[in-house]
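hey
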C-alpha cells in the first residue's frame, strides 16, 4: 500500500497507485493527516458515537468531521487450536456508547480469532443498520481493526475471490468465504441499495490502538466462563 497525498476521503492506494475505495488511511487524507494522533478520534456524546476530527484548511482549527462514524472491532480466542477453544467478538463505538456490544461465537462456528473478527464486523454492520443509519447526517463509516487479513479481504481481495468462485490466487479455497461474501453483499446494499447512501472504509491500526474492542471481546469470554 502506498501513501498518496491529496485525497480528501483518505482512500489508500495499491502498489500501482490505484485507489482502494474501501480502505482508509488518515495519512492519505488532506483533511485528517495534520490532526495529532491523540486527537484524531473523539467521542461525540450528542451522537453517542466516535467521530474523526479534521484540520480546517483555512483556519487551521481542529474540528469535528460530523459526517463520520468510527467503529472499532476485534475478536478474541482462548485455547486457540484446541478442542476447548472459545472465541468472542467486540464492537466499540466509543466510551459509554449504548451501541457497544460483545458476545461469544455460536458453538457451531469455528472457534478462532479470525472467525471472531469476522463476526465482529457482521455485528457492527447490524448495529449500524438497526440503530445508526437513520441519522442521515452521518454517512461515512470508518471500521477500525488490527486484522490486516480482514482489511485486505474486504477492501482488496473479495471481488477477485467471488470471480474465482471462492478460490484465492493460488487456486485454494478461501477460508470463511461464504460469510465474507455475505458481508460484502451487505456492504454493497448499504452503499448502493435503495436505502443505502453509506460509505464504508476499513482502517488498519496497531493492536495497541484497538484495545477497547479487544477488551469487550474478552469481557464476553469472561462472562461465558463464569
Amino acid at each position: 500500500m502506498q501513501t498518496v497525498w491529496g485525497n480528501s476521503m483518505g482512500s489508500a492506494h495499491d502498489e500501482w497507485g490505484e485507489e482502494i475505495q474501501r480502505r482508509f488511511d488518515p495519512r492519505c487524507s488532506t483533511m485528517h493527516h495534520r490532526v495529532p494522533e491523540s486527537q484524531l478520534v473523539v467521542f461525540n456524546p450528542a451522537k453517542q458515537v466516535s467521530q474523526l476530527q479534521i484540520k480546517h484548511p483555512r483556519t487551521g482549527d481542529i474540528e469535528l468531521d460530523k459526517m463520520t462514524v468510527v467503529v472499532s472491532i476485534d475478536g478474541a480466542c482462548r485455547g486457540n487450536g484446541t478442542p476447548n477453544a472459545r472465541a468472542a467478538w467486540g464492537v466499540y463505538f466509543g466510551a459509554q456508547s449504548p451501541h457497544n456490544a460483545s458476545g461469544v461465537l455460536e458453538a457451531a462456528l469455528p472457534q478462532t480469532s479470525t472467525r471472531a473478527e469476522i463476526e465482529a464486523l457482521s455485528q457492527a454492520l447490524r448495529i449500524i443498520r438497526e440503530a445508526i443509519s437513520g441519522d442521515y447526517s452521518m454517512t461515512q463509516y470508518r471500521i477500525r481493526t488490527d486484522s490486516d487479513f480482514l482489511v485486505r479481504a474486504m477492501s482488496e481481495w473479495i471481488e477477485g475471490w467471488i470471480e474465482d468462485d471462492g478460490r484465492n490466487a493460488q487456486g485454494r479455497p478461501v477460508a470463511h468465504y461464504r460469510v465474507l461474501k455475505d458481508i460484502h453483499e451487505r456492504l454493497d446494499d448499504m452503499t448502493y441499495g435503495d436505502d443505502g447512501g453509506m460509505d464504508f472504509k476499513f482502517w488498519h491500526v496497531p493492536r495497541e490502538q484497538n484495545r477497547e474492542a479487544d477488551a469487550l471481546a474478552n469481557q464476553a469470554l469472561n462472562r461465558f466462563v463464569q
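The helical segments are 113-132, 148-163, 177-192, 211-225. DSSP finds four helices and ten strands in the chain.
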